[in-house]
């Protein structure tokens, strides 16, 4: 279980993310951090959570809140728990498939952007260990313009949307096993 002490070290290390869960309600815990290019409250992450998973890929979710008068773009993210990609779900050949989010996540001025099962999410590609319910995972979002936002998400069980993290679902996935949703 990652602690808040590990979170501070992890943010400095800028590693990658991991997580998962089985409850249909996201965690109410939120720990937004300051961006080096914007005021501390410019972008916050509300109700972050990660889907608990014993093996394979999983994802992190929450609500991105832009408290400024200008659009904010998240161009990448990291976590000490796993290599991470920004992902979206899209229709392809009549079915929903997961793929990297080209151009990052854009949060309009004064608006919110949902990261949710079956939609945009932070994809933990190869978690280094099982992610158990209650684990706290740290993440750092990199904004266009060089700022960063750090937050912690709690892992929880989640059987919800039943989306597949099968490596064959998009072109950039490695051929490793990826049954993150159960």
Automatic annotation (TrEMBL):
Pfam (any one): PCuAC
PANTHER family: BLR7088 PROTEIN, COPPER CHAPERONE PCU(A)C
SUPFAM superfamilies found in the cross-reference section: DR1885-like metal-binding protein (SSF110087)
Name of the protein this chain belongs to: Copper chaperone PCu(A)C
Superkingdom classification of source: Bacteria
UniProt cross-references to InterPro entries, sorted A to Z: LpqE-like (IPR007410), Lxx211020-like (IPR058248), PCuAC_sf (IPR036182)
């Amino acid at each position: 279980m990652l602690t808040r002490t590990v979170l501070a070290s992890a943010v400095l290390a800028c590693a990658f993310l991991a997580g998962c869960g089985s409850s249909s309600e996201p965690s109410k815990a939120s720990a937004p951090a300051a961006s080096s290019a914007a005021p501390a409250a410019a972008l916050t992450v509300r109700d972050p959570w990660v889907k608990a998973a014993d093996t394979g890929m999983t994802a992190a979710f929450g609500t991105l809140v832009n408290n400024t008068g200008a659009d904010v773009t998240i161009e990448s993210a990291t976590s000490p728990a796993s290599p991470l990609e920004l992902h979206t779900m899209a229709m392809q050949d009549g079915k929903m498939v997961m793929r990297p989010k080209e151009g990052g996540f854009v949060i309009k001025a004064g608006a919110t952007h949902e990261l949710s099962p079956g939609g945009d999410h932070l994809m933990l590609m190869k978690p280094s260990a099982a992610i158990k319910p209650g684990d706290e995972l740290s993440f750092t979002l990199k904004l266009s313009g060089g700022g960063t936002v750090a937050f912690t998400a709690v892992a929880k069980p989640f059987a919800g949307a039943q989306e597949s993290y099968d490596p064959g679902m998009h072109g950039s996935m490695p051929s490793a096993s990826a049954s993150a949703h159960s």
